[in-house]
């Protein structure tokens, strides 16, 4: 079990937050050492490995509520799947460009619509909602500009900015795809696949051999798209939360 005081969430949620990552060796006895923290923090997130139903039920007995199943996906860049003719042709007319100045960041953030995050667990949580989820993501994206290990790239097709991808370096061989999306006006156009192809191209040119990402069971469209382009499911976790404040306090 690993505990993380997510102090950065105070800016996002206005709450003290503890993240608890359980592993396969943890049992229900592990909860005994968390008893005081269950009441100390405003908001607690528990990440539980698959098949640990006894641990999930024990967390529920302690006031936790299920939020999502999280799928960890991996894409092998040495075994890429051939894209459709449309994606291939459009990708040849596209390029990715890094958001690396504050002016560029400001312009980029202005394109992020509030309804982009409606499947996020914070957005779906009745205690928070879409506005807070939107603020939280904007803060994360802003932090990327100051990070040495993460970056945002916009995807341009025929001189039009159609979407973006946000990546973090996990290790020398693997990058973590945090977010990838098209802008609202280009939804349902097939350009989401072009954005993914651009992310794969970036990863190859940066010297990575694998791309990892995580997708929520609340976002079936993203899960379906990632599986169809060649991602493989490598792990599954259950996400639960406990809140020590009433809804009207938000």
From TrEMBL:
It comes from Paenibacillus eucommiae. It comes from the Bacteria. This is GNAT superfamily N-acetyltransferase. Residues 106-250 form the N-acetyltransferase domain. Pfam families: Acetyltransf_1 (PF00583). InterPro entries: Acyl_CoA_acyltransferase, GNAT_dom.
């Amino acid at each position: 079990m690993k505990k993380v005081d997510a102090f950065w969430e105070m800016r996002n949620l206005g709450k003290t937050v503890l993240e608890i990552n359980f592993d396969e060796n943890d049992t229900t006895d592990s909860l005994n050492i968390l008893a005081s923290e269950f009441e100390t923090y405003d908001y607690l997130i528990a990440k539980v490995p698959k098949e640990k139903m006894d641990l999930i039920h024990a967390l529920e007995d302690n006031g936790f509520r299920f939020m999502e199943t999280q799928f960890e996906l991996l894409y092998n860049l040495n075994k890429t799947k051939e894209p459709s003719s449309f994606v291939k042709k459009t990708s040849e007319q596209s390029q990715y460009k890094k958001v690396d100045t504050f002016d560029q960041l400001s312009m980029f953030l202005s394109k992020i619509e509030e309804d982009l995050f409606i499947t996020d667990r914070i957005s779906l949580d009745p205690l928070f909602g879409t506005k807070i989820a939107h603020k939280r993501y904007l803060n994360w994206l802003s932090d990327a500009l100051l990070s040495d290990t993460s970056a945002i790239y916009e995807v341009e097709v025929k001189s039009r900015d159609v979407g973006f991808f946000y990546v973090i370096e996990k290790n020398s061989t693997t990058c973590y795809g945090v977010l990838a999306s098209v802008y609202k006006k280009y939804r349902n156009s097939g350009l989401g696949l072009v954005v993914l192809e651009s992310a794969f191209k970036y990863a190859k040119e940066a010297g990575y051999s694998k791309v990892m990402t995580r997708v929520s069971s609340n976002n079936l469209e993203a899960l379906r798209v990632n599986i169809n382009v060649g991602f493989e499911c490598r792990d599954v976790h259950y996400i639960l939360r406990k809140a020590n404040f009433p809804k009207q306090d938000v």
